[in-house]
Amino acid sequence: MHDLISNLAMGFGVALSLQNIGLCFIGCVLGTAIGVLPGIGPLPTVAMLLPFTFALDPTGALIMLAGVFYGAQYGGSTTAILARLPGETSSVVTCLDGYAMALKGQAGTALAIAAIGSVVAGMATTLLIAAAGPPLADVALLFQSADYVSVMLLGLVSAVVMAHGSVLKALLMILFGLLLGTVGTDVASGDYRLTMGLDMLADGLGFVPISMGLFGLAEIMVNLESMAGRTAIAKKVGSLWPSRAVLWQAFPAMVRGTVIGAAFGILPGGGPTIAAFSAYSVEKKVARDPSRFGQGAVEGVAAPEAANNAATQSCFIPMLCLGIPPNALMALMVGAMMVHGIQPGPSIITKQPELFWGMIASMAVGNVILVILNLPLIGIWVKLLQVPYAFLFPAIIVFCAVGTYTVDSSTGDVVLMAIFGVLGYVFRKLDCEPAPLMLGLVLGPLLEENFRRAMVLSDGDAMVFLHRPISLAFLVAAALLLAAVLLPSIRRGRQEAFRE
Amino acid sequence: MHRRSILALSAAALATPRLARAAGFPDGPITLIVAWPAGGGSDVSMRLVAEALSRRLSVPVLVENRPGAAGTIGHRAIATARPDGQTIGMFSQDAITAQYGNANAPALSEFEPLGFFGEEPGSLQVHPGTGITTLADYIARAKAAPGKLRNGGNPAPGASFLYMAYYERRLDIHVTKVAYAGYAPTVTALLSGEIDSASVPVPDVIEHHNAGRLRLLAVSGTDRHFMAPDVPTFRELGHDVVIGGWRSIAAPVGIPPDRLAVLRDSLLAVFKDSDFQARARHAGFAVTPGDHTRTAAAWAESDTSIYPIMDELGLVKARRKQGT
């Protein structure tokens, strides 16, 4: 305990230097901005910023780059709530209830709850990294391929539970997502599958163009259709400040979201997107009245927003403590460290304590900066609502196109986005939810890769999934969840609940 | 920094571009295409090159990441760029393997060699739980139970897959090759003990080797790796196994000779610059500067050594060579 306090004190000493506060501020402002803009994610931003950090000291450089990453999670929820357009992929689930709240005239409350959820999670996770980071890092090493298979199965099953409406439609959407996920390079043999000779498909269908199309473009099309009557973006914002009752309702969800987010961030391949999806389905499970979800349930905003922020920060744990990047953005951070001559690995904590603790302390500083930055700015985002659609819709489409293009500098991805925009419109007409499809698309390739690896490692013995305790636990959980959905009596109750 | 060295530096910065400059070239920013995502070893090394080259030529040099299809998208962007010298790119041995695996990949003849950055030898490392402490142990274990040892690496025909395939051929052993999507997940799997060994390059494992979480057995370079001076080469241990990756700079064919000369001279000067070498070494890269002839030689050498391995493993799906 004494060590922790003295270490944190040293960290704050580093993070509170004028230069590092300034860098943290720049990172947070940039992060919020790219978070608000749909499609432009933290990954290309950090890549573009990398050369500018050559001149900085490594601690300052990493503090700024980290600010971009978690700042983006704050900004990403804004467009999700106001326009049903996820600014970041991790804000996809926030669209469901956040936008519903906005339609009900509670946009202000939803934005405030998202910001409060983010800061609660941010602060809690900062403390967690400081206290438990070094020992927690080793948890990632307990997971092997077979365990990942079971975790992902659980994720897919929970997507069925999460969807509203028909179970069959949700299942079909997941299967469609899994099918789309088979496009690309076979991880074991290196063969190209279903790529139609196009190199742009060799690494699979991109997550960004598809989510932009299914969520962003489709939403605009639906709105254009009903231009005369319904409004796309709720004009009435309502109070920015949530009532005590709403806060009371949201707080437990924030805590659960934080725990789930922190756990998913540590696992390799995890990260904010899957964390947000899981937090949402857990909320729906524990809610007394699940039918409120999708209709503007405040927990449906609080939990995923807390989860994506917690995951964003906790994925620094394996990166800083083990030198293992759990996702692409952390890999970029490792690259940034290598430029500065720091070899990522377990020795960072002992060899570079001012970097390790300085970065952790900077996260606390950054969360405070983001609240100062975001709460007054909510008023400005709200102003977005008054922009006429004639300007707003074309602007959103341009942002989507630019954002999609910048990920891989690929025009093909923009075409892909357009195709999935039309498809998303068809899905909306058929009452099929796109969220399970996205989860299938994300988890499908990982599921296949890990499954095939697990089978190679076990010499083809499928019992390996039952023999490993971690895997077995997740499989049992998935089976229970599936039974709960499929049992006739429960299913009837569920459908009645959704009919309202 | 002392005032005098600042003066000397700026004098050098002013003088070199004039010497190296052909009529009106470069007349704008130079794009350096990297066929791999930002943050990896290729990206980091090329960003160092871009910075130094930019200072030498006094124009911005922009790194453009064009990842995808095992490098094919980026390599083709280099090969099909307008041959005016304003677009160059990184060319590694992956471009050599890609031309045989993917009919869409550009052929070796579509590139003009510019300069040689350096080599990164392959290496073999094991999980300490295996009880293997030397290369001899490893070979003995693999021979005692063929296919029982599990080695992690890239999916075929990625670099670390080819290293292991080459080790198997030269050491006359057989292991089960397990595919991971990159070096980071491979190292994670090795640390967790899911696999027994891996064949990723030294910089990706050196910290874990020093911390005792895994053990480097041997390096397949001609010399020991500067980051792991305690680890012997395969040759020192009596096995003639030399394989590894390298990084060079290439351009599309058809660049006017005067511009080509500017690019080649400037790159060689950058690579030979001791300040640049120190920075690269700091980041984990050993720079072994070479001109365009050295580059062409490295390309040809890899082409002849890699093709038979790919052919034997059934990985040649395009541009089959005659008489093999």
Going by helix content, strand content and strand pairing, the class of chain B is alpha/beta
Would you tell me the overall average pLDDT of chain A?
Answer: 80
Tally of alpha and pi helices of chain A? 22
Show unreliable segments of chain B.
Answer: 1-20
CATH architectural name of the largest domain in chain B: 3-Layer(aba) Sandwich
Alpha carbon gap, first and last residue of chain A:
52 Å
| Number of domains as seen in the coordinates of chain A | 1
For the report, how would you describe the main beta sheet of chain A? 2 strands, antiparallel
Largest sheet of chain B: 5 strands, mixed
Cα(first) to Cα(last) distance of chain B is 59 Å
Q: Can you tell me the CATH topology of the largest domain in chain B?
A: D-Maltodextrin-Binding Protein, domain 2
Q: How much of the sequence of chain A is in beta strands? A: under 5%
The assigned structural class of chain A equals mainly alpha
CA radius of gyration of chain A: 22 Å
Strand order of the largest sheet of chain B: 2-1-3-10-4
From the structure provided, what is the oligomeric state, counting identical versus distinct chains? heterodimer
**Number of H- or I-type helical stretches of chain B:** 11
Describe the overall structure.
The complex is a heterodimer of chains A (500) and B (324). Chain A has one domain (2-499). Chain A has 22 helices and 2 strands. Chain A has helices at 2-15, 18-36, 42-49, 58-83, 92-103, 107-136, 145-162, 167-181, 207-225, 244-266, 272-286, 299-314, 316-322, 328-339, 348-351, 353-383, 389-408, 411-429, 434-457, 464-467, 469-486, 488-499, and strands at 184-185, 192-193. A two-stranded antiparallel sheet of chain A has the order 1-2. In chain A, helix 6 (107-136) packs parallel to helix 12. Chain A is globular. The relative contact order of chain A is 0.18. Chain B is of the alpha/beta class and 324 residues long. Chain B has 2 domains: 15-120 and 244-312, D-Maltodextrin-Binding Protein, domain 2; 123-219, D-Maltodextrin-Binding Protein, domain 2 (3-Layer(aba) Sandwich). Chain B has 11 helices and 10 strands. A 5-stranded mixed β-sheet of chain B has the order 2-1-3-10-4, sandwiched between helices. A 5-stranded mixed β-sheet of chain B has the order 7-6-8-5-9. In chain B, strand 6, helix 6 and strand 7 (176-179) form a beta-alpha-beta unit. At the A-B interface, helix 3, helix 14 and helix 19 of A face helix 2, strand 2, helix 3, strand 7 and helix 7 of B.
